[in-house]
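subagent[fold] <- orchestrator: predict structure for attached chain, return tokens only, no commentary.
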Amino acid sequence: MKDRVNPKDVLPFMNKVSQAAGKIVMSYFRGEFSIDPKDPHPDGIDIVTDADRASEDYIVEAIKREFPDHDIISEERPVETTGARYTWVIDPLDGTVNFSHGFPVFCISIALTDNMAPIAGIVYDPVHLENFLAIRHHGTFFNGNLTSVSSIGELDRSIVATGFPYDRTYSPENNVAEFAKVALKVQGIRRGGSAALDLAYVACGRLDGFWELKLKPWDMAAGMLLVAEAGGKVSDRHGKPAPIDCPSLVATNGLIHDGLLGLLDFVE
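subagent[fold] -> orchestrator:
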């Protein structure tokens, strides 16, 4: 295997794996499967299902076969890295709570990183057969066609999305005050339940902005690249560069970015 990876060369593999994982997930959807709480959330707010595990097993084994020298970070298993240059960051089923209720908003998210900076990413929605893919320095594609962020430049004409952390019932960092403040300043606000899909929707112009607290790398690694390559802007809540492990994320079409940051900065 070559030491240096051209992100274009991994696209057929990423497409194949994400769609196969989507079929696995859909084989469980609205069927019988177990639902278990994750540690440290014994209250059952943060959950994992058989579909998460089956999708993850398939994706991880496929990567190990094709790229045995690469590291893998995936949501449902302990992080074990070797310091490899290339790391795959995987969410085998983003939107598990939606999935567990039969609510058709969830996806598979896979990113390839070079020294933890995303260079290729895919978000695949197996319900609607929608494929969002980005290659660093080569743009973002929606079902094979080049796409871009929206041109809405005013907050009061924008639609933005957000989410809430699992510990919102007992943590003061719960996004509730921010939600209330932003809701009064925008045309519409959405809470879809899948950060990866929210980011994909910003990238293709369905949403004008998105913010959330306490995300994990697998929630946003692919989606951050989608937005950036579609001409949008990605930062932390203070406007600083956002690595894939940043504690907060703001992603917009770029035109409303400062306005959205201004609202978030003033929430104490």
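orchestrator: received. Logging for downstream: The mean pLDDT is 92. The radius of gyration is 18 Å.
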